[in-house]
Amino acid sequence: MSVSTPSPTSLTITRPDDWHVHLRDGDMLGMTVPATARTFHRAVVMPNLVPPVTNVELAAQYRQRIMSALPSDMTFDPRMALYLTQDTTAETVMAAAQDETVIGFKLYPAGATTNSAAGVRSVEGMAATLEVMQEHGVPLLVHGEVTEPEIDIFDREKVFIDRYLVPITEQFPRLKVVLEHITTKDAADFVAAAHDQVAATITPQHILMNRNDLLVGGVYVHNYCLPVLKRRTHQEALQKAATSGSPKFFLGTDSAPHVREKKETACGCAGCFSAFTAIELYAQAFAELDALDKLEGFASHFGADFYDLPRNTDTITLQKYTWNAPELVHHGDQSWVPYWAGRELMWQQQTL
Ligand code: DOR
Ligand code: ZN
After folding, report:
1. Tens-place pLDDT, residues 231-258
2. I need a surface site. Which of 89, 126, 258, 326 has the fewest CB within 10 A?
3. Beta bridge partners of 104
4. CA separation for the pair 192, 315 (Å, rounded)
């Protein structure tokens, strides 16, 4: 006799953290900070501002601006990623090691993505800096794509792994490395096989979509991000990694707002703005994969464990409830088309 268990209508999990988010700066913080703090207790805040956040002083000022934008009834603990440059000094690394609001350094290959012009031009030339980071326990967060024009955009992540990450993880076995927003089976396999100081974040869009969602029937600019969506077999590998229960894979939304005019244009910016529905998007994906029981580890435990931070002690509750993601969000006199705009979602975070 088979007994069928009713599917749950409510799910309570430890409060999650977002280990990769773009909050931007200025007036926009009034929108992005509450949107992220609604769900997440901690967030790793990306430093690709103009000019970039390259040292602890700039990070402290930026963090202050973020905290000033936090509504008084919310709690939030932003952890700042510093922007690694070819000129980052050992002193800057050591200052980062002493500052608990700084999580590590983000390596952007110069030219790889939004505001990466000041990024690293020669990864090989960074060995001395990585050595200091390893010595002082400062993690390396990586945008893993090569930038050579002759390398096909769909191969850029794999080439970066083979050319740079395999050697780095062998040369620096005690350096914590997070391969951010992975998009390929190659990346998932690399992380799974690497030593236990190597982990990866996975975005909602890379679990929910593949490149057909970008290109079939038209060009869907709001699904365009970097690294770009890959073919379905890669999406399936990411789904498997995210729901595997492996502590090497955890939540990082890469929520990255660009105003509507900068997306809906001849050369649209890269970035999916998912903060308003982030946990619901992951819940949707995990539910469709029949893996809701794996959501809490991925969203709330593994990232904290990897960074040697305590797990959060409070909880959030998601209700099974069909609703539609917003079509457009406004702040000041500007508007943004969020990721998944207008589409159905099957779960909703309960607000108190
Ligand atoms: O799609 C992306 N948007 N990928 C990135 O790496 C950067 C981000 C942004 O800052 O807009
Ligand atoms: Zn990002």
Report:
1. 999 999 999 999 999 999 999 999 999 9
2. 89
3. 81
4. 29
